[in-house]
């Protein structure tokens, strides 16, 4: 059920927060083209698809889906491929995510939920990068919204639902959670009828067991042919250093960082060295609290009656078994955590504890957004604070010097790939 609740009046402090978020976000559109490892990979694939790289280039065998590189290619063809356009697209996607989560689930104030989403340091970091995660989060929610409409006998939504689902999968393979979530939702909504029909129940159990057996039988082959399955290392879930408990701890750390709104690496700089050993247990405990609070709100408010919850359940399953730490993969599911935190703030007691959490979250988010804005509007600050290695910083310094001097330099696409990308698309 998609609910529409009345908008509540906002205190002055909240209005100021919303204004700051809007101003600082828009200022980040001025950022130079920010590249990281994945962004470079996507540009490499785009250049490969344009026929600008030799057939032997490593971009030809990169396992990343081609949906985002194709978007870059068409933007380039239209003369719109530049840092400002890509950041604007990501910000628009982030705002759309906030709007859609409040359409799929009941929320009193969509502006506040959207602002809290945009204040997540994880979103702030990735909104400015030319990577597809924000677009994927938006397409996942938009596809789910269309399917929710279609399942209410509004068949006109079926075609856009199919197309947007295909686009989501083409952006990131994890988009497969959309059809999986629909299947689980249909089983849930029809469970009373299924359990009364022994033939239907037997058939359902048979299909599930057959699918599991077939998957396990083909697992070795899948790992040999597909990098995702190889990285999952499903055999390692039972034994080895990356067993299930180790993976769960990694993702509890991610959830703790999400709630505190600061990465562990930055938190280390604020804590005295003698107390540094407490940081990781504190973050994991915070993550466990975030998870427990989310489960509580889901049960208390019966969110399982909504299709989006089942899509998120499938996505969360992928997150849990993923053997690596990477907060970027939380981006599609951050809306659920923020929604539950916002709902808890309205419903739960003691309110002072949640007010403290909310204050910490907002202040850290505004700090992260201000930090990002400083990098975006000042080249000196950019060179000092951005770049994941000395070679990358040197490339940016050379690029900025070329722009200041007005020198037209043609860089070798094979030997100076980063400088070529910056020269062509940082506009």
Structural class: mainly alpha
Number of helices: 21
**Taking Cα atoms only, what radius of gyration do you get, to the nearest Å?**
23 Å
The major beta sheet can be summarized as: none
Dominant shape:
globular
Tell me, rounded to a whole number, the average pLDDT: 90
Strand content: under 5%
Low-pLDDT stretches: 1-7
Proportion of helical residues: 55-70%
| Total strand segments | 0
- Helix and strand run: HHHHHHHHHHHHHHHHHHHHH
Number of domains: 1
Distance between the termini: 45 Å
Description:
- The protein is mainly α and 427 residues long.
- The protein has one domain.
- Helix content is 69%, strand content 0%.
- It is built from 21 helices and no strands.
- Helix 2 packs across helix 3 and helix 4 packs across helix 5.
- The protein is globular and about 75 Å long.
Key features of this structure:
21 helices; mainly alpha; 0% strand; globular; 427 residues; disordered N terminus; transmembrane
Write a compact overview of the structure shown.
The chain is mostly helical.
Architecture blueprint of SSEs:
Elements: H1 12-27, H2 37-49, H3 67-77, H4 83-104, H5 110-118, H6 121-127, H7 133-150, H8 158-171, H9 177-189, H10 191-196, H11 198-225, H12 227-232, H13 244-260, H14 264-267, H15 279-300, H16 307-321, H17 334-347, H18 351-377, H19 379-385, H20 390-405, H21 417-425
């Amino acid at each position: 059920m998609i609910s529409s609740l009345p908008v509540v009046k906002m205190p002055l402090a909240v209005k100021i927060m919303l204004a700051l978020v809007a101003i600082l976000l828009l200022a980040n559109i001025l950022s130079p083209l920010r590249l990281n490892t994945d962004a470079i990979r996507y540009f490499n694939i785009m250049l490969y698809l344009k026929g600008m790289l030799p057939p032997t280039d490593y971009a030809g065998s990169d396992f990343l889906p081609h949906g985002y590189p194709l978007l870059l290619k068409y933007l380039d063809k239209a003369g719109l491929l530049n840092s400002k356009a890509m950041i604007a697209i990501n910000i628009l996607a982030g705002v759309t995510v906030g709007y859609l989560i409040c359409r799929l689930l009941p929320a009193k104030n969509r502006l506040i939920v959207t602002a809290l989403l945009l204040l997540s340091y994880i979103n702030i970091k990735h909104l400015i990068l030319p990577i597809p995660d924000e677009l994927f989060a938006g397409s996942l929610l938009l596809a789910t919204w269309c399917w929710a409409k279609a399942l209410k006998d509004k068949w006109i939504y079926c075609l856009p639902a199919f197309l947007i689902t295909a686009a989501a999968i083409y952006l990131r393979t994890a988009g497969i959670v959309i059809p999986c979530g629909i299947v689980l939702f249909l089983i849930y909504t029809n469970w009373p009828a299924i359990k009364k029909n022994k033939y239907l129940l037997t058939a359902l159990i048979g299909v599930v067991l057959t699918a599991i057996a077939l998957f396990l039988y083909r697992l070795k082959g899948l790992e040999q042919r597909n990098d995702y399955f190889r990285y999952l290392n499903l055999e390692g879930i039972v034994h080895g250093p990356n067993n299930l408990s180790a993976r769960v701890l990694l993702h509890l750390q991610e959830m703790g960082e999400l709630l505190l709104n600061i990465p562990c690496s930055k938190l280390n700089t604020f804590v005295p060295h003698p107390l540094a050993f407490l940081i990781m247990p504190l973050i994991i405990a915070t993550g466990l609290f975030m998870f427990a609070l989310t489960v509580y709100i889901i049960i208390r408010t019966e969110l399982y009656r909504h299709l989006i919850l089942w899509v998120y359940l499938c996505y969360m399953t992928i997150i849990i078994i993923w053997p690596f730490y990477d907060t970027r993969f939380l981006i599609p599911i951050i809306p659920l955590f923020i929604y539950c935190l916002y709902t808890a703030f309205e419903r739960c007691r003691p309110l002072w504890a949640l007010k403290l959490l909310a204050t910490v979250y907002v202040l850290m988010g505004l700090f992260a957004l201000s930090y990002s804005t400083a990098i975006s509007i000042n080249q000196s600050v950019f060179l000092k604070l951005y770049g994941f290695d000395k070679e990358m910083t040197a490339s940016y310094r050379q690029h900025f010097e070329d722009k200041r001097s007005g020198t037209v330099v043609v860089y070798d696409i094979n030997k100076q790939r980063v400088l070529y990308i910056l020269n062509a698309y940082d506009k």
